[in-house]
Amino acid sequence: MEIYEGLAIFQGIAIGAIRYHYDQGQFRYPNAISDVKRELSRYENAKEQAVEELTGLYRKAVANTQEREVLLFKRQLQVLADAGFSSAIESMIRTEKVTASYAVATTRDELTSTFASLEDEAVVNRMNDIREIADRLIYILGGLAREKYTPKEPVILAAEKLSPSEVMDLDKSKVLGILTRSGSALSHTSILVKAMNVPALIHIPVHAKWEGRVCIIDGYEGKAYVDPDEAFLEKYKKRREQERQEREYLQSLKHEEDITADGYPVRLYANIGSMEDLDVALESDVKGIGLLRSEFQYLGRESYPTEKELFQTYQQVARAMGERQVIIRTLDIGTDKKEDYMNLPEEINPAMGNRGVRLCLQRQKMFKEQLRAIYRASAHGNLAVMYPMVTSVEEVREIQKIVGEVKESLRAQKIPFQDIQQGIVAETPAAVLMARELARELDFLHIGTNDLTQYTLAMDRQNPQLKEQYRENHPAIMKMIRMVVREGHREGCWVGICGELAAATELTAEFLRIGVDMLSVVPACILPVRKKIRETKVGREFVSKLK
Ligand code: PEP
Ligand code: MG
Asked: Closest by alpha carbon to 324, among 293, 295, 285, 296?
């Protein structure tokens, strides 16, 4: 048995055969062909199939209003329609008598290396599109495409890396778990993977020779066991069965209230980062959205989204949730979440750099457009707004001034809006220490334990080398949570937790006893936390500050 340790993106137990997701390296050899005509028609057919697949993905993205993907697939369809791209491939098949796969791979490499040094955003996008298109064509030509994306039996997918479009392409019912060599916990790919609700590990040294071998993924321990022995496998089969029963039981809680065993209601809301997440959250009959990470509309595109695009999405979420509250976090761009069109200068330590609301305060046009979209959408549901990475009262006052201007301009244009609640993500040690002063200016404080932990412990939240020492439930963090709750309540604010720690069921009882008013968790964790809340007696009157 081989044991590998990685970083868990999503918990759970999976047992199954590995399907290795092939890298393109294998198509680098110029296999000669004798029948040029046949090879040209193979290429033509592959192209047709790729157009069909991409059109399907494009339509799906349009239906889900995933604007990033809509643009991506539209661009990729344009590459396929471009005569230049195909004629380079066809002429290579004709003159050099090589396989279509080799011609595609070589054309891809030639094009992408010629323009590799160019930083122009449109060129970078085009090169990425060419890479993805070529990879799709190669899979199809290898006869691997359908099998790879939709294996007959459910499998454990092992890949060097997965792109967001590959994840979207997967037949979710055929994936038991996912292992990848690269990736980071907060990448767009990981966000999509989390929504699949299957155990997933990154930083696992996957290998093509694993194809077909039995594997156990333990998403609780962050471990993958390849070729487990019989006794070990049996042990895990029992654990998986327990997990299955538990899941079944959890499904029965779908329409239950979030109320403690001694009768106190708790706000258990969902964190979402895409419109797909919203669907998953709605399936769990979620009572509100505690954190809408708004970056998804800004990523994977060539220019800023327009106010109209932002508004339409917020309006759609607001309407889908009806009377239930939706808290939109304004743009938290910086660190790993950025795009070329934003023109962000390189920073030595971007996590400590110009990110979150700092950047928004510098780029007021961008900030105002988002705020206008949020306030306009507020007329269509129950919205609230919160600001990331705040460190001082002065920042909050500056934000309020801009919000005042936005409201004024809406009023002048007779555009309806509501005076919605405003809060911050309390995720810097400074915000914790200034919680009382900040609370005086705001309606709520939502504790972002992900960043709060990294800034308090001075440990990068994405560094796998620190996973032993990196403890989100470090006593310092628990002390900080208590402090924010106490100080926030003193000033009449409600206090929630929206970092990943909110989903830690071993801490649910403690959070409630401390007086945390809202727990906001990834959609897949709604039911486990609901179960815990319903089992917990807070033992004293739980006075919620929620307005
Ligand atoms: C956090 O930092 O805890 C948080 C909720 O925000 P993000 O994970 O998006 O940085
Ligand atoms: Mg954060």
From this structure: 285
- C-beta separation of 431 from 439 below 8 A: no
Q: How far apart are CA 505 and CA 473, in angstroms?
A: 12
- CB of 274 within 6 A of ligand 1: the answer is no
Question: Does the Cβ of 450 fall within 6 Å of ligand 1?
Answer: yes
What pLDDT is stored for residue 390 in this prediction?
98
Among all chains, which residue has been given the structure tokens 């470090």? 474
- Active-site residue identified among 215, 360, 493, 498: 498
Query: Which amino acid appears at position 135 of this protein?
Result: D
pLDDT at residue 24, as a whole number = 47
DSSP secondary structure string for all residues of 115-176: TTT---HHHHHHHHHHHHHHHHHHHHHTT-HHHHHS-SS-EEEEES---HHHHHHS-GGGEE
Q: What is the pLDDT of residue 150?
A: 54
Residue 474 is a catalytic residue: no
Rounded to the nearest angstrom, the distance between the alpha carbon of 428 and the centre of ligand 2 is: 9
| Chain segment 60-77, per-residue pLDDT in tens | 888 888 888 888 899 999
* 444, amino acid identity: F
Among 179-183, 268-272, 487-491, which is the least confidently predicted range? 179-183
Instruction: Name the residue at shortest CA distance from atom 1 of ligand 1.
Output: 448
